[in-house]
Every structure is written in C-alpha cells, then in structure tokens.
Design brief:
Blueprint lengths: L1 E6 L9 E6 L14 E4 L14 H9 L3 E6 L9 H15 L1 H4 L7
Parallel strand pairs: 3-4
Antiparallel strand pairs: 1-2, 2-4
Length: about 110
C-alpha cells in the first residue's frame, strides 16, 4: 500500500492535508488494475475532523478493494467555503494523478 500525506494547495494557505491509502497491484494478478477511490471527509461540525471517522473508515474501504483518501480539511477559524475549495482541489489532484495511483478517475 502506498501511504502519502499531500499538502492541499488552495489560494489560501491552510494546514489541510490529503492522506492517501493506495492499494498495490501485483504482477501475478493484474499489474494494470485500476480501482475506484473513496474520498473521506471526517465530520466534526467544522470545529475539528473526527479521528474515528478518518483512518478507521478508510481501512474498511481498503479491505473491500477500494483505494481511500482522508481529507483533513480546514476547520474553525477557517470560514466557508474554504473546506469546499480543499475538497475540490483534492478531487482534481486525484484525477490528475489517477494513472500514477491506479485510480478510476470516473469513480472518485
């Protein structure tokens, strides 16, 4: 599995991060396999991002054959729509890197 932490790059400087959990392909099975990806945005009322709704959820999707990412988006004192911009940036980033990560870009 490839695990990366990608700084989210929007017009405003933030601490938002995209955590990627990308499953490996195996030569003996199908080295060019692509998979759908679930992008998880943990709840927390825009005050925090819940740990129990982040990696634990990603692991459940990974176990079912999906790639998964967790977006730790900006929370208070950041204001709307900053977190939405970070989500849009994350989807665009994942589509741009779909071939590299083995993601089906139409299934994010």
């Amino acid at each position: 599995m490839k695990y990366n932490i990608v700084p989210v790059q929007t017009s405003k400087s933030t601490d938002a991060r995209l955590y990627t959990y990308i499953l490996d392909n195996y030569e003996e099975i199908d080295s060019s396999r692509t998979r759908p990806l679930v992008l998880i945005c943990p709840g927390g009322g825009y005050e925090f991002t819940s740990d129990r709704e982040a990696e634990a959820v990603a692991i459940q999707y990974i176990a079912r054959g999906f790639h998964a990412c967790v977006l730790r988006y900006s929370v208070a004192p950041a204001e709307f729509p900053q977190s939405l911009y970070e989500l849009a940036w994350s989807v665009a980033y994942l589509r741009k890197h779909a071939a590299e990560y083995g993601i089906r870009p139409d299934k994010i």
